[in-house]
Design goal:
The protein has 16 helices and no strands. By secondary structure, the protein is mainly alpha-helical.
Amino acid sequence: MAEQAGALDDAIAAFEKAVALAPNAANPYIELGSCQARSGATAEAVATFRKALALAPRDPVVHYNLGQALAAMGEGTTATQHYRECLIADPQFAPALSALAQLFQQQGRTEEALDHFRRGLAIQPRDPMTLNALATLYRDLGQMESAVGRYRESLAVAPHPVTYAKLATVLERAHRLEEAAAAADQALTLHGATAEARLVKAKLAVRESDAATAGVIYGGLITDISQQSPLRDRAILARAQADLATLREKAGDYEAAFALFEDANRTNREGHPSWQAESTAYLQRVTRLTAMVTAADKGT
């Protein structure tokens, strides 16, 4: 990971020089923005892509990349506009269809999401990213067999460790434990730091009543993910914290369990800043309703 970060830093420095040498060319800005986005500097990437857009306002690649950066910042409405502009410039730009589908999926617009995924696959039927995203939608809908099928199609094209890890997750949820273990092992063989595959291995150890092994895996995951900068695997960290808390609770170590549950809640809150506002609003509504009921009781 340190080598990758160093390579990105070098690339960013190189493209910054390229931008300085050719300030009226869009391509150096596109490359710089892409490197910034991969490094986690999303706000900087958005600013860079906007500069590229000023130079190439009808370039579908610029609109797509800007949409991706905006979506990563939670600005789904603006991201949608840029994905649509991308498709106006190039109706065959399949990744934009997939990106729109994922936004619709997040918004609960399932039919629109499925439609856009299928349109994307009609253009690029063997695109691993679209197949993976569609598999994730099927997983979220509880259609595990369809999810497994799409992940396996993706792996037939590109045997990527992350895809194996996601396949392992679905197989574990579908109680196909031997297949889940094999997929997780394959992910770890290809890339030993695949957090999701390690999470699956921990869950399988719990299923086998091997709390000691599960505890070691969960503990290692929590330590490793917590040291990431920026923190990428937040959802997996929260799951590991909550699962380990459950193990500690079952073992009678209630103090450790309580602390881990608090950590999991904090991890989730930090990943969803709007939760605090939503929780506060909910509590305010409850307080108002309680006051109304109390007043009504006193009046009777």
